[in-house]
Amino acid sequence: xxSIISFVIRYVPRPLLQRVSPLVMKVFAQLNKGTQVQxxxxxxxxxKFLPYGRIARPNALCPNxxxxxxxxxxxxxxxxxxxxxxxxxxxxxxxPEHCFIDRFESLPNLEYITADxxxxxxxxxxxxxxxxxxxxxxxxxxxxxxxxxxxxxIKACSEFNRVLKESGWGILQSPVYNLEKTLxxxxxxxxxxxxxxxxxxxxxxxxxxxxxxxxRRSGLKIEENEFVKELxxxxxxxxxLAPDEILFICKKGx
Length: 254
What we know:
- The protein contains eight helices and 13 strands.
- It is an alpha/beta fold.
- The protein folds into two domains: 2-67, no CATH class; 70-251, Rossmann fold, CATH 3.40.50.150.
- Helix 5 (153-163) links the parallel strand 8 and strand 9.
């Protein structure tokens, strides 16, 4: 199972994967019945979640809504630490995740806009380097696992800073590795070499421990939030979370 999932993630184009994976997952949902783990996003319970990743992580993917560890943590944070589900908010969601789209769109308090340069799930075609909205438009911006793909991550974040309102905030997750400094070399264009150095063929950098400091160069304020450690081991196990995952919360800066 792990090798099959790793192969599919590596070689099947992302837009196609986004369209067909919900149907395929329905089969796996029937095979993993149980109550050992629970997805807070959709409420489904299983004996365990499915493995996921190029180097497959066990107990990662909810077969019902396709939420991963980071999505489950984000959902809990929004529920327990924000007014996301009740306040009148205008939200920009870049590269929207399948597990969130319908749920966020159904919230009557949100004006919810999805955007991406290629995703079939997004309603607005948009390049994050040139966001087609005026200054001070959005209360919230979500952009998860995108900045490792884009040509200029600092420029993209400066655009988020521009379109956020004065009190605006967002969540900007990316894979962060145990490197002192982000690894980046724009001269490398060969997909195989990018995969070797950056982890994926479509990655253009490998973020290190300087991720938050790097994004601050855009003008954004970045908080390294350890909300997962407030939940306790029992909830971390119940929801199958990554116990050391940091939430990178941004706020509008200068």
